[in-house]
């Protein structure tokens, strides 16, 4: 029933130091995005991993009682620059190839967004489908899952859009990283229960991991992201549905600063425990 954490919330550090910090904070698993979290190896281009390095990173985390549940990959999969697009794909595929040595069953990503606010096109959707199909084929060769996540303002920004992508790129290697906080925005926060229920209805059977952040309206009336337990998201409903569809799924906490982590973890675990008890699950 443990809650993990994004490794880079502790900063970008040498991996031995990072593993020690995560373990000292009491977490037993992490989502590791190497180029965001590790400072003593430059992962900004593909090609740096070797079996020795991957095993060394995994062993260092294990020393501190931490496993790598998810490899994170914050890359753009329909960028117009063809050279950059191929580089992004190769970086993801490198994580797929080394995931097993790192002990991670999932390599996860959002598909990207237009930061200039420009409209998405048929070309963007076609390219994403081609890339996701290529990544799923690679994952199948290595026994790894590709975890896709919907996020507001991204090309795949809603549960319905992610469901459509899964239908158009059918593969048992593709799963969903569920994150209701990513689906909430200023306009729909008041209807959040419907948004959360729809996400599980459309994506529930495909969930392979879960993210946990919180959302609330700021003093100016705009939605903002805060640590779990510091906002107004319906965590009771979230944990109820997660336990209903995917009991035991790894949860990775987001958005918290180090001094907030213990409180946020207890908040998530409290709601998950209540959901388990309500469903008659025996807990320790």
UniProtKB/TrEMBL annotation:
It holds the Pfam family AP_endonuc_2. Gene3D superfamilies: Divalent-metal-dependent TIM barrel enzymes. Residues 21-262 form the Xylose isomerase-like TIM barrel domain. It comes from Paenibacillus farraposensis. The lineage of its organism: Bacteria, Bacillati, Bacillota, Bacilli, Bacillales. This is Sugar phosphate isomerase/epimerase. It comes from the Bacteria. Keywords: Isomerase. GO terms for molecular function: isomerase activity. The keyword Chloroplast does not apply. InterPro entries: IolE/XylAMocC-like, Xyl_isomerase-like_sf, Xyl_isomerase-like_TIM-brl.
């Amino acid at each position: 029933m443990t809650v993990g954490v994004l490794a880079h919330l502790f900063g970008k550090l040498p991996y031995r130091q990072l593993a020690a910090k995560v373990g000292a904070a009491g977490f037993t698993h992490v989502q590791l995005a190497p180029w965001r979290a590790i400072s003593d190896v430059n992962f900004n281009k593909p090609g740096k991993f070797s079996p020795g390095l991957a095993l060394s990173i995994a062993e260092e985390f294990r020393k501190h009682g931490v496993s790598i549940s998810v490899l994170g990959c914050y890359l753009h999969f329909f960028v117009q620059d063809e050279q950059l697009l191929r580089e992004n794909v190769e970086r993801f595929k490198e994580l797929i190839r080394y995931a097993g040595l790192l002990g991670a069953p999932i390599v996860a990503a959002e598909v990207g967004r237009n930061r200039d606010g420009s409209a998405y096109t048929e070309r963007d959707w076609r390219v994403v489908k081609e890339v996701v199909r290529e990544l799923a084929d690679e994952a199948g060769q290595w026994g790894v899952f590709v975890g896709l996540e919907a996020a507001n303002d991204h090309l795949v920004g809603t549960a319905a859009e992610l469901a459509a992508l899964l239908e158009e790129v059918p593969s048992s290697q593709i799963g969903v990283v569920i994150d209701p906080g990513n689906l909430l925005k200023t306009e729909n926060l008041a209807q959040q229960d419907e948004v959360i229920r729809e996400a599980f209805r459309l994506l529930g059977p495909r969930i392979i991991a879960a993210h946990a952040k919180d959302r609330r309206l700021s003093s100016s009336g705009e939605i903002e992201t805060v640590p779990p337990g510091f906002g107004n998201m319906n965590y009771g409903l979230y944990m109820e549905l997660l336990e209903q569809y995917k009991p035991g799924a790894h949860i990775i906490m987001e958005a918290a600063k180090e001094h907030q982590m213990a409180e946020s973890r207890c908040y998530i675990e409290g709601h998950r425990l209540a959901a388990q008890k309500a469903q008659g699950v025996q807990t320790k």
